[in-house]
């Protein structure tokens, strides 16, 4: 049997899965033989989980985890596990690559030249791009003939109209590609594909998906196409995240540099690694810790997070001309009922009535009967999307 390996480097995780290539013609039929993740990367609580095809947890020893696990170490442990698996026969590797820049709007077979071109975008996604690409060379050393495919987070948003993508900057900046790209596209793409099977006959022309993980963004999807999103040129715009600030007054950045004498590197470190939930709470970037904490600072961080999400949902609803469905996904979206509750309460004016009981038990549909806007919890599956695209690309070769 030959396998598709998928790798998804998130800002706090390295997720992976192995799928039989034979199943890959149909997105719905793709069932992983194994799936797992190194989670809590860069935090005080790293972890490792592995599941079999039936979703049962498997005992696999990734070696003793250090106090803080980083992406490189997680990749080394994963590659060692793959090398040691006797029944794997890799046919293709699919990588999530966060930034495709101006050029890549569809999956592509990686060559050293394309990897170099994509590495040039590292500074636009410093928590992701390099970590997404680093395994490519390491796998090529072991398996020089193995095709490796990049699937881009930005690609799904290529359908956005110019008015959503352009900044109000002089035209020559826009022409150079200084525009809003949007991210989490594999997740939005997947949800768009599976939405019909969950929603049945419910209207779904105007949908907002809230991808709330360690990185967080919202996407406005009109008739299945992305028309606007909260993330822009980089994966820092929009909502506050685990450690990222989200949108700021750009004048504040100038102030930090000119008046407070901060270096450009120090400002980057502040905005990417020390802000968001971590910065506001002073406690943790992990929503679980904040929900469990009695500290008022934890409450303030959660309130700021949900307040910003509600405001941005209002903005995207305006772009869509109304709202039919709101979908929650990713680590926080799938698991944090109090966060969903606060966001849904803030959307009552849009016609959304929450079903508290359904929300607390993480039901698929969490809006009350009769709610004009539907609210849903649907797990994302970027790995499945990557596997499907990667198999498609090598079938065309
Ligand atoms: N049960 C839970 N309750 C609240 N938050 C959770 C829960 N499980 C995971 N999370 C949140 O989800 C985040 C990870 O989300 P995920 O989408 O896997 O991240 P990444 O951005 O690395 O892909 C964690 O940092 C944590 O804040
Ligand atoms: C783009 C991004 O922030 O991704 P993640 O949430 O996986 O870190
Ligand atoms: Mg993620």
From TrEMBL:
Chain sites annotated for binding Mg(2+): 8, 382
TM ranges: none
Record keywords, A-Z: ATP-binding, Cytoplasm, Kinase, Magnesium, Metal-binding, Nucleotide-binding, Transferase
GO molecular function terms listed in the Swiss-Prot or TrEMBL record: acetate kinase activity
Cofactor(s) recorded in Swiss-Prot or TrEMBL: Mg(2+); Mn(2+)
Catalytic activity: acetate + ATP = acetyl phosphate + ADP
Name this polypeptide is given: Acetate kinase
Gene assigned in the entry: ackA
């Amino acid at each position: 049997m030959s396998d598709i390996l998928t790798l998804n480097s998130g800002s706090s995780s390295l997720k992976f899965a192995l799928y039989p290539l034979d199943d890959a013609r149909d997105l719905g039929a793709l069932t992983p033989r194994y799936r797992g993740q190194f989670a809590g990367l860069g935090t005080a609580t790293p972890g490792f989980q592995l599941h079999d095809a039936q979703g049962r947890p498997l005992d696999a020893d990734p070696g003793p985890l250090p106090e803080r696990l980083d992406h490189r170490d997680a990749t080394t442990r994963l590659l060692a596990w793959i090398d040691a698996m006797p029944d794997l026969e890799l046919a293709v590797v699919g990588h999530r690559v966060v930034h495709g820049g101006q050029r890549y709007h569809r999956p592509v077979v990686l060559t050293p030249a394309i990897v170099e071109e994509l590495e040039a975008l590292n500074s636009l996604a410093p928590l992701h791009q390099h970590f997404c690409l680093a395994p490519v060379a390491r796998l090529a050393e072991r398996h020089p003939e193995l095709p490796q495919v990049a699937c881009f987070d930005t690609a799904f948003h290529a359908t956005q109209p110019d008015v959503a993508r352009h900044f109000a900057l002089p035209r020559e900046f826009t022409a150079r590609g200084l525009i809003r790209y949007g991210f989490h596209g594999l997740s939005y793409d997947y949800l768009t594909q599976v939405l019909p099977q969950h929603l049945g006959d419910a209207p779904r022309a105007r949908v907002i998906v809230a991808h709330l993980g360690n990185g967080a963004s919202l996407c406005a999807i009109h008739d299945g196409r992305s028309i606007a999103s909260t993330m822009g040129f980089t994966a820092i715009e929009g909502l506050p995240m685990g450690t990222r600030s989200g949108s700021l007054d750009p004048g504040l950045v100038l102030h930090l540099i000119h008046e407070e004498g901060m270096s450009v590197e120090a400002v980057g470190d502040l905005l990417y690694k020390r802000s968001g939930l971590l910065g506001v709470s002073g406690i943790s970037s992990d929503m679980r810790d904040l929900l469990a904490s009695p500290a008022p600072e934890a409450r303030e961080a959660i309130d700021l997070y949900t307040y910003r999400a509600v405001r941005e949902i209002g903005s995207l609803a305006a772009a869509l001309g109304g709202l039919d469905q709101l979908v929650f996904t990713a680590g926080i979206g799938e698991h944090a009922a109090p966060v969903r509750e606060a966001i849904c309460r803030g959307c009552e004016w849009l016609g959304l009535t929450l079903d508290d009981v359904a929300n607390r038990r993480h039901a698929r549909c969490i809006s009350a009967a009769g709610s004009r806007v539907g609210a849903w919890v649907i797990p994302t599956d970027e790995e499945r999307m990557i596997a499907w695209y990667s198999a498609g690309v090598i079938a065309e070769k």
